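Page 42, continued from yesterday. The earlier attempt failed because a stray header line got pasted into the input along with the sequence. Redoing it now with the clean sequence only.
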Amino acid sequence: MTESRKCQVLVVGAGPGGYVAAIRAGQLGLDTVIVEADRAGGTCLIRGCIPSKAIIHAAERFEALQQHASDGGHMGLSVIGEPVVDMAALVAWKDSIVERLNKGVKGLLKGAGAELVKGWATFKDAKHCVVDTTDGPMEIEAENVIIATGSSHIDLPFMPCDEEFILSSTGALELDRLPKSAAIVGGGYIGLELGCALAKLGTEVTVVEGLDSILTIVDKELRRPLEIWLKRHGVTVHTNALARGAEIKGKGAARKVQLNFEKGGEEHSIKVDKVLVTVGRRPNTKGWGLENMGVRMDVSGRFIRIDRQCRTSSPGVYAIGDVVGEPLLAHKASAQGEMVAEIIAGLEREFDKVAIPAIIFTEPEIVSVGLSPDEAAERGEQIVVGKFPLAASGRALTIEAEKTGGFIRVTARESDHVVLGIQAVGSHVAELHGEFVLALEMGALLEDVAGTVHAHPTMAEAFHESVLKTLGHAIHLT
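This time it went through. Structure tokens are written below.
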């Protein structure tokens, strides 16, 4: 027998967009159901942002231990004996964090009064779906629907991920043994974040990128410190190189995977323990009945078309997060989810953000908020730019953040000094993004930041100094 359920709000997908939407809708007194086929938290919490950052942190700790265990130690601190990586234990620690956060999300949904249904939803029309649950089918009729189905990694048809030798990012986060060697197909932020972590743990890493540069989403100046770090840590980078396939070679424990790629018109191959494929992500728009909902797609045909309130072309149906297009970021999805819940509750809201911060957790970290100097110039802006190196920051020196050649760069309009963009590269700069994005959202002038007292000694002082440099009078820089 099919169970029936009516609700005011039905959220499909319990990722960072969906679960935030459901929690906010519940807080606002709306009868809310959220459907998730996997665990609450979505890709970001279960197999993306959170677990990858846990492994990145562990890799940083291991690298530090190696420094202290080296001949003569480091900072006057020595560790006796060679540090050892227990990959299975590391992954178990990572999993404990994921499990804790998963339980936390479920608790928050319950506390807000939202009903979490585990199962796969298939839509018959815009407001009706059937959910396959372990207890049998459940038919749900909703007054409002929020599509938050997220995205999945892109498989290469000629080199599908088997998660044993050829890994997606998901498989890379579940390794039970540290590979001695690994090749990463795709030099974007996902592959490079994991590549930096593996290199710190002791894996010999090779990157194969089809474009003429790695990390093309940021400009050359921001990329440069990362490129230097990769070279210093023995990471081989092949650009203008196209992967052509992979073959498993050898027998038993000696088996390796041979990655074949083309570069400069010539065929090349390398044998490694693992190949990690990180060539991008695609929106989850198939397999659950989107075609039955009367929803229009954007001009690319890949993403769901929405307006500034995340409304689709089907009345009462909203879409948020990765399924609506770039940037494919968890915090964008969360902001949209909260907004949509409030719109359904009758509040006046629209998604009109000046800037959405982007952070890349490589070594060094890279932060970008707003426009780069080139982007501002392309828009016809007359600009002033100031840059302050972390090597001139006392706090950066005390935490060795200056070793990566990092800096903070500010771009402002020349005529009125409105801040248009802020970028930073260096160790520990990710946590500065809040001040950056707040400055842009509040429409800050250079003088607003310059006149704000920043505590000493902190990394945030470098932002203050970069603004002073833009105005032409940095204190700690000649």
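Notes: The first strand starts at residue 3 and ends at 12.
Reminder to self: strip header lines before submitting.
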